[in-house]
Amino acid sequence: MPDQAAHTVRTVLKRFPAAGPYGSWPADEYAAQKQAQGQPARVVMDLHADDFLVIADSPAPY
Questions:
Q1: How far is CA 34 from CA 19, 22, 62, in A?
Q2: Is the pTM of this model over 0.90?
Q3: pLDDT tens across 35-50, in order?
């Protein structure tokens, strides 16, 4: 039987350019807003696009 933890669907909620103003963290602020609304969200870096992504993980459907 496959491990359920290994099967997740990642949804990109929003993209933010990495070259934002110094001291500004818009991706982290957006993720915190989503978390406050009860949606699990986290920030990851897309190195190829030089963007911060706010993503939500959810279990993959069978």
A1: 22, 23, 26
A2: no
A3: 999 999 999 999 999 9
